[in-house]
Design brief:
Helix content: under 10%
Radius of gyration: 34 Å
Keywords: Membrane, Transmembrane, Transmembrane helix
Strand content: over 45%
CATH architecture of one domain: Sandwich
Structural class: mainly beta
CATH class of one domain: Mainly Beta
CATH superfamily of one domain: TM1070-like
Number of helices: 3
Shape: globular
Largest sheet: 8 strands, antiparallel
CATH topology of one domain: Hypothetical Protein Tm1070, Chain: A
Pfam families: DUF5719
InterPro entries: DUF5719
Protein name: DUF5719 family protein
Organism: Nocardioides aestuarii
Distance between the termini: 84 Å
Number of strands: 36
């Protein structure tokens, strides 16, 4: 019987012939398809992205301004003004109260508000760029400006002991809650205070932090208030309690500018008393600080005044009573603080039972304004940025201009300009130069009031999708 045709036969001779293999079409596709895909993609050119040009934040005029004014005692007046503008209507409100009270403000006129609690002030429209305020005290002369809420505050020279204590006032002008963290530095370094972390202030309310109760310590302290959520206005009430025959002394400690390596404490008060310079170094490295006395036409290091070393994260105190008083009698107008690392500084003076604070003031080309409490006042100009003129204009409480002086300035120079009796508002306008300015007021005590430029615009960042990393 013959074999079927499809039956394979085995070759003879001991050798095997190669078996013919058939390639599957699926395998061909599996190999070629990725190669074809890669090749096709290599031929595709995506649209070129236009070059992203970095643009600065846009300047816009503010449409609303909120001020936080510290509490007073007894009959401490709160003054509000529309500086260098047409005026308008502002609204004041006390924390924990829902209703607000309208206040009509006129250009360069000063309006008094009868309220001793913390006061929240809101200006809208054109008034938003003109609103200023200050709390003052006639008995034991003192004054402090109302603050714009901001994310970071430094206070140098606060106390938390039996012979010097300070209270931090936090006020929330918005409806939602705000949260702040308070850091405390001593001469030995930072202090860990859990109760000062995550301090929550509900919307429209205020919170008081008595440091002598929260973190009792001897010596001078410095604190930083960082607002991590919402907005807060932070102010400090400073007090030296009655000790023996010494009467109680109280006032407001102004916030220090951000730490820097060059500061001008402008406005020195003469007379008998005690001058204490408090330096704070919030960094980690040691800072070496040089102190120079500033006059109207020069600055110099007094004989015997040595360099001060401030360790990182600590506070250093320097007693300057003899040095400063001698130089004030010879015409000194300020104290220049130059350091190798960023520091903060405050000069605290006790004069005739009154507490006075001088804080750094920066030169500026913009017009600066301040509310002036009752007393004998003069404007101190310092650190001019070159040859130019400074116009000093004084206004009474009704907005009437009492006098206008023009002061010639040269590079680094300063001047002292007496203000007429009844001055309630003063404005310094530099021409072709920049200059720093403070007001020194003497009466039943003394106070130093810095002049600040108005907030004429805010910044809106340039935000666009798809910016390259």
């Amino acid at each position: 019987m013959s074999e079927p045709e499809d039956t394979p036969t085995t070759p003879t001779g001991g050798r095997r012939s190669a078996v013919r293999r058939v390639v599957s079409p699926t395998a061909v596709i599996a190999v070629l398809l990725p190669l074809l895909t890669v090749g096709a993609l290599s031929l595709v050119r995506p649209d070129e992205q236009p070059e992203q040009v970095a643009r600065a934040a846009e300047q816009v005029e503010p449409s609303r301004t909120d001020l936080v004014c510290p509490p007073g005692e007894g009959k401490d007046p709160l003054d509000l003004a529309a500086a260098a503008g047409s005026g308008g209507e502002a609204a004041t409100r006390v924390p924990d109260e829902d209703e607000s009270t309208p206040v009509e403000l006129r250009q360069d006129a000063v309006t008094e508000v009868d309220e001793q609690d913390t006061v929240l002030v809101r200006g809208t429209g054109e008034l938003a760029a003109e609103l200023i305020g200050a709390r003052s005290r006639e008995e034991g002369l003192a004054s402090t400006e109302c603050v714009l809420p901001r994310p970071d505050y430094f206070f140098t020279g606060v106390g938390a002991g039996a012979n010097h204590s300070s209270t931090i006032e936090l006020a929330n002008p918005d409806q939602g809650p705000a949260v702040a963290d308070v850091t405390v530095w001593t001469s030995n370094g930072p202090v860990d205070v859990p109760t000062l972390r995550g301090v929550t202030v509900p919307g429209g309310t205020s919170e008081s932090l008595d440091l002598s109760q929260v973190v009792p310590r001897r010596g001078e302290l410095a604190v930083e208030v960082v607002v991590s959520r919402g907005r807060l206005g932070a102010t400090v009430v400073d007090e030296i309690p009655e000790i023996g025959r010494e009467a109680r002394v109280a006032g407001w400690l102004p916030a220090s500018p951000e730490p820097t390596t060059d500061q001008l404490l402008l406005g020195l008060v003469g007379g008998e008393g005690e001058d204490t310079l408090v330096l704070s170094n919030p960094g980690t490295d040691e800072a070496r600080v040089e102190l120079r006395v500033v006059t109207e036409d020069a600055s110099f290091v007094p004989e015997g005044l040595e360099e001060v070393r401030v360790r990182g994260g600590s506070v250093e105190t320097v007693t300057l009573s003899t040095t400063v008083r001698d130089q004030v009698r010879e015409g000194a107008i300020g104290l220049q603080v130059t350091s190798t690392g960023p520091v903060t500084s405050t000069l605290r003076t006790v004069v005739d039972g009154d507490l006075v604070h001088a804080q750094p003031v920066s030169p500026t080309e913009a017009a600066t304004t301040a509310l002036v409490p009752s007393g004998n006042a003069h404007v101190v100009l310092g650190r001019a940025g070159g040859a130019g003129v400074a116009e000093v204009a004084a206004y009474d409480a009704d907005g009437k201009r009492l006098r206008k002086d023009k002061v010639e300035l040269t590079d680094g120079s300063g001047a002292v300009v007496d203000l007429p009796k009844g001055t309630a508002l003063v404005r310094v306008t530099p021409r072709r130069t920049e200059v720093a300015a403070s007001v020194v007021v003497k009466g039943n005590g003394a106070t130093v009031v810095p002049l600040r430029p108005l907030v004429r615009f805010g910044l809106v960042p340039d935000v666009r999708p798809g910016l390259p990393e």
